Write a sequence for this structure.
């Protein structure tokens, strides 16, 4: 799973720390929007242009899906796309998780956010480049289009909504949990940063509760994904990662 955040998601965390949990960010990177049989054949030569990388039940993830996921993530992180076999396999693993999540969202009638919901963040992404021409040039260099970036922001919102509705309600954080975390983590860090100043639990209670609840919801998601994989036939096609 990805352990780093994109420029856009880092910005979201600064403005609203509880907006996206770390686990949802790792999961979301490979979120499959359009899943289906995507083999393109050249009429004259019969050459396969897009091979299947992974079969997830009756659905497929193609090599093109995997490579697009890598390129979009690299664009948002401002790094060179890593198209190594190992990274393609890692990206495919994330896409499998996202296929399972999307299936659950569809069968459980979980809401998907409208495009308008992420319009402000998309505008911030454009504004992070000196000019519109620079923005379009960067997209072209990575071999992606603006809708790919928009899809990523929509996936972030959709997966966080799924976690919030599917797992967060069952999470319990007790007063003792909050006190223990405050004593073990928050208080020592606060005293080190501001020597001599009083450190009160009430000043941190809400943030601690949100953090612990988010972590536990992420753990519930991990457990659910493991069980979902057991219930679904997942087949990787090694030739796609060579």
């Amino acid at each position: 799973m990805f352990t780093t955040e994109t420029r856009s998601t880092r910005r979201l965390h600064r403005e609203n720390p509880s907006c996206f949990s770390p686990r949802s960010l790792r999961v979301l990177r490979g979120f499959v929007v359009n899943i289906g049989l995507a083999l393109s054949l050249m009429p004259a030569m019969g050459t396969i242009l897009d091979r299947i990388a992974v079969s997830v039940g009756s659905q497929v993830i193609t090599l093109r899906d995997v490579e697009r996921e890598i390129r979009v993530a690299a664009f948002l992180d401002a790094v060179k796309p890593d198209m190594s076999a190992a990274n393609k396999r890692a990206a495919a693993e994330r896409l499998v998780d996202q296929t399972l999540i999307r299936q659950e969202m569809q069968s459980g009638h979980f809401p998907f956010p409208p495009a308008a919901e992420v319009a402000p963040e998309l505008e911030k992404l454009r504004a992070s480049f000196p000019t519109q021409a620079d923005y379009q040039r960067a997209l072209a260099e990575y071999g992606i289009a603006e809708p790919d970036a928009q899809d990523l922001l929509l996936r972030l919102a959709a997966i966080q909504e799924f976690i919030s509705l599917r797992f967060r309600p069952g999470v319990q954080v007790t007063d003792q949990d909050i006190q223990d975390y405050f004593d073990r983590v928050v208080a020592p860090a606060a005293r080190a940063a501001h020597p001599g100043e009083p450190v009160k639990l009430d000043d941190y209670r809400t943030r601690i509760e949100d953090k612990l609840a988010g972590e536990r919801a992420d753990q519930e998601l991990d457990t659910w994904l493991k069980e979902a994989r057991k219930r679904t036939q997942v087949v990787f096609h090694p030739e796609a990662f060579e």
Notes: The radius of gyration is 20 Å. The beta strands are 52-56, 59-62, 234-236. Residues 1-25, 27-48 have pLDDT under 50 and may be disordered. The chain is about 60% helix and 5% strand.
